[in-house]
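Colleagues,

For the teaching module next term, I've prepared a clean inverse folding example: a structure given as tokens, and then the sequence designed for it. I'd like students to try predicting residues themselves before seeing the answer, so please don't circulate the second half yet.
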């Protein structure tokens, strides 16, 4: 769930504030995961180094994607992000060093004090990453950057004619979003003790990262957090009680309901409460 908070918050910086729908979340998440695996396998790098490197690689991919695709708009940009996801997956499928299509088994290193288990340490690490992601999203929202991104979302032509540096802001949002998604992927291989391309670069990451801000509300930094907590909880309950395959159905049903009945999400419903200050 903490991973979902980071991914949903990161997605919202570009998709919610600027209005550019990114279906390629899995590309950034997966690249961050594989970057961490390569560093651990080659150098035995500690988790902190893995996360920093994954964030840097994610930021580099985000910058490259921004330069190449952000001149596209609407459905064309969304299709381009899906293509990047499949390209990244294909590269890892054919890279023998990280296990190729069959994946790679990982042995967790010794846990550091004061933690008693490695998974507890990963929980604390993901909690810190979630705090960082939400803090960055909040800063972007209340700063001139957020105002510029919202102007782009409302009317890019009007924003550009008013002096807003549209391309620079879009590339910045894509870079920051990519860095946070890459960082979110770094702890996952050690959490699972295994990594393989199909699940790591799954399109489900992109669908969930899109659905959570839409359900929680894209206009405010708290929206992705609410959506991640709600949808993440439901997905975990469904996985344990029914089946993992039903997760996508649950996401789809909730997304349709909120788009039709509450297009502004949970945060939008809260703002409509009479007498709320």
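(Answer key — instructors only)
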């Amino acid at each position: 769930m903490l991973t979902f908070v980071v991914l949903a918050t990161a997605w919202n910086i570009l998709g919610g504030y600027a209005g550019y729908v990114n279906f390629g979340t899995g590309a950034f998440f997966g690249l961050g995961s594989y970057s961490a695996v390569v560093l651990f396998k080659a150098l035995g790098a500690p988790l902190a180094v893995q996360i920093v490197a994954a964030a840097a690689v994610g930021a580099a991919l985000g910058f490259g994607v921004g330069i190449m695709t952000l001149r596209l708009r609407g459905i064309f940009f969304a299709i381009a992000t899906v293509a990047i996801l499949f390209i990244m997956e294909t590269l890892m499928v054919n890279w023998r060093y990280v296990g190729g299509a069959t994946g790679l088994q990982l042995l967790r290193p010794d846990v550091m004090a004061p933690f008693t288990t490695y998974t507890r340490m990963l929980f604390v690490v993901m909690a810190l990453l979630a705090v960082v992601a939400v803090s960055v999203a909040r800063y972007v929202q209340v700063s001139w950057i957020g105002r510029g991104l919202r102007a782009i979302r409302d009317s890019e032509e009007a924003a550009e004619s008013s002096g807003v540096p549209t391309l620079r802001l879009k590339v910045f949002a894509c870079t920051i979003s990519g860095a946070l998604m890459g960082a979110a992927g770094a702890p996952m291989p050690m959490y699972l003790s295994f990594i393989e391309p199909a699940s790591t670069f799954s399109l489900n990451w992109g669908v969930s990262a899109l659905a959570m801000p839409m359900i929680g509300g894209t206009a405010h930094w708290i929206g992705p957090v609410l959506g991640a907590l709600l949808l993440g909880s439901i997905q975990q309950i469904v996985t344990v009680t029914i089946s993992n395959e039903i997760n996508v159905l649950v996401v789809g049903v909730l997304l349709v309901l909120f788009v039709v009945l509450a297009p502004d999400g949970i945060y939008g419903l809260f703002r409509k409460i009479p007498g709320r200050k």
